[in-house]
């Protein structure tokens, strides 16, 4: 079946010299009208250079060429004060393997450049994970000994963002108010991400596909793989979004990225209080109380330049209203139409 | 049906003058042989004094008389270097209401005595939650406006611990290596908690029942209620436990309590690496990698004197071995025998 | 010359079995009337067991027997809500050597039990410092190589406190609102320390003499030595003191002890704003502004269970009033009378 | 007297449309050969718009136009891996007044955008300080009441930096490894600052003059004024500098900028351990011990996007060697020659 005539679809697969390594500071690669479906491909965070257990990232990669982004996309009509919405139709591993590794002086359980100590770095070890895209599994094989196990595949993007405010250009390794390297497993297919616009055109990019990751990304690196990803973009005029928010069919989520981790937690929870009191008619203190008893608070990462915390509220426990101008519902319908068009198999 | 003859069962309901307000420093109220089933009752964190929206905790309660504990129990044979295991058979609200409140200068989204600022405190507001023990729901009613919602009941103990090390006596409001006021929703019926013993007899206490709470306990107070609780106690000789660990039928969990929150996260994750490499045969770096991709990291509290973070690993993703000497399996069997005895309805 | 007849003087030198290892939880060794001069002796933080570079603290010392305190002293008339004042007449090294060491998993530049990591501990190395009490110097000798240098002697007590609030007993290694192991070089002779009283009699102890230390006590251990110390105690009835405050002839100082370090900073600075606006007639915002431009903020320690920060304001930049009921001036006069009595040489 | 013929002197006073608002991302305004003396002028952090107590910064200023920088200067020959040295000959207030203010949701004792809370912001109040450049004083006048006091003038630059690494462009409000808005009172005349070069030409800028500030810059704003500043620039080829270092005639200083504040402390102290062991011949553990007992640790700021901590070691306690290739001594001689030339009065 052909795509429905009213679906605007764009395909984009960057060449290696087209990757963006920053949020802000890169020229747009495509212009997107709100409502457009984008079929794109993203390279892994090692630029595809860690392919075996012999490929140490400190040898085969070179700063600052970590975490290549696909984009930026110019969203037509986007101006500071608006919000861009990105709905993920599908996120599918583009290879049958993925890589993970320890990185010297990076990760939650090691001294780092910011948590500076006198220890020698931990050893650098690479794991290659086998992905079974039919069985939807990621296979871990121990490097010491022969034990292995299949974990469920749960593909996501570690990185999604727009150009920052305040004239800044940030490394694609950074999560902050503009989004970026948030590394939350909640950013999966079926979810809409809201990002406040800081510059004309928003300049949206994404990358850092993970076949799966634990909450906190403890060693600093997930099950990193290239992705075939389909998303729909939309624009909410005149509605700001101070920190990235996510919406699924069942949940609202606010994110905060800061150090120390309690500040990331505070941002996410305070934004959720503001969201619930602003859009659902509860007073701020009633929202504070309800959230205190109902919120899930999955940690995203405790390893990046800023740590990321998520506040997650079930919609069924809130007054029955649409948030963010009903954008998630509208984009989910576009995703459904796209899937019905048969252009790409959803979920693979 | 009568209790099985081999079940040792003790009932204990403290009078108000028998509460313990500290971990350590209180005389034991009962002696428990390992394997004993204890049927007990715990008062809520306000000592039952906040009963209506007019009962401000700053008026009706008086420092240090917050968070009364039931206990301490002397565990026979417990010596420093051993581990006490507590398996929760059931945790059931003892009243059909529960209380929550904002507390001036306490909570995650307010200045506090430790995060000192020049702001006036937030207003003190009380919410009384209605508990429907048959429907298993907790009803929130907004204080401003008429909206209300039923949340699932998910009873748990905010506080469980033993006497601390280093000759200390700690307020029952504190979570630390001895357990205490961890405020994690993971401490529910069906779960075994492991606590390292610091003094002869361990001096185990528990309290701070919550009909439910969100992850992080954002406003500082959960849905606080008195509890009828049944637990089995056991002793693992010669096995230390540096930080409280939890085990359910499906998961292993490590906890860390510290500030800043990333240190609590680090403790829990590092303990899980040590647990998995120590008891399941993976090398430390293989454990680090597997945990990084598989762990859930539910935040417990970001409001107490120490913040608490949990690292949660599904057992099905680990080599098929029993942890902690098979204690959880053994205690779950005792719980099953107890339930079969018909002495108290399980789950209510 | 004999002591003035109106000077009440008490001598106290504890036997090893009389040391206190905690704040709170120890029976008083002496009763002191306000105004009493105490001539005492304190052992070093290793209980005198680290005497050569071969004496590793992990071998010769045993938990919890670190940081022995001299006391507690019962201050007559002290009740919760009062403030005890301790003025140091002299603090003099009692030996001609002092010890320092790295301690595995302790210090600012190493993984610790709270900042948990997967690194091996740093090596344990002991330095013995030679003290020249006439030249007022401490001699550092490198362990690797032959270089050495004389640093100025600047004797101080790392630990001074009263029994905690909330029924607690805390290890002598902990700094908190009750004082304790603050490890600030500002606690030297000529300084008055104010401590809020939490229990009848206050239960004042002191120890942890340092011939000198850097700001932050980076490796976790100062130039540790036994001390001959003379202090005057006083009581300010009906005046609370939420966090330890210090006063010298020239400065007012507030301390905060917490984690993360910014919370310790906030406590100290907010207390100084409260002190200056409460006792010197400035509005809180004027005090905030003046302090922002005038304060010195010497870090005390970044290694203990809580980190300690000091806010230090020159008196000459404040309206000319006496703080804390003129206690410092009054105690300095007692100190002068004591020195005039010739009982002990001041400053040695 | 004319300048010595061998002194290369450049004057530069930016027009308002020439200010840089970022580190990185701005075109160089002048090229400087190593050894050049620059006579420049910097505007205050409010771009000169807060001139009376009626000028609220939230009204008269507009994001992102805070903290204008003079520069960037292209340092000839500078390449990544080199170090640029900036020696301050003089820093003199360019006006007879300076401004300070509280800023809503900014400062150490208030909720902020990163330490998010539910409090209303503190009031916005402006103070205008009178500067007496002959008497070398800054006059504080209370806004509430009539009290005032003269504080010593101690002029400094809050902001000095080079273009960041990793392709980034950072707001001039940010301190980080590239320098930037460190806000340390140690950056005064007579001091040399070392900055690692990240991009060709280094792209050096400076601004944010303070007539004085307290340690920590508690309310977030110092005594802000335009400055007439003279500096000498130099280049140290092939010597990297991972974090900004300072050198005076008497002290070596390392800086760290991060959150939480203990991480800033760790960076500065670990860099000092590396500096002393790398350039002065002590082993790392001997350096750790010596620094632990000798270091001063003045806090710089606890208010900016990153907090800044300084580790300060007296040179007289180190082996008698020149650090950083003798650059400070060499630049101090150039400064002396400049002063001898009579072009501008030193110190005013």
TrEMBL record, chains A, B, C, D:
Taxonomic superkingdom: Bacteria
InterPro entries reported for this sequence: FmdA_AmdA
Gene3D superfamilies on file? Acetamidase/Formamidase-like domains
Q: Which Pfam families match?
A: FmdA_AmdA (PF03069)
Name of this chain's protein: Acetamidase
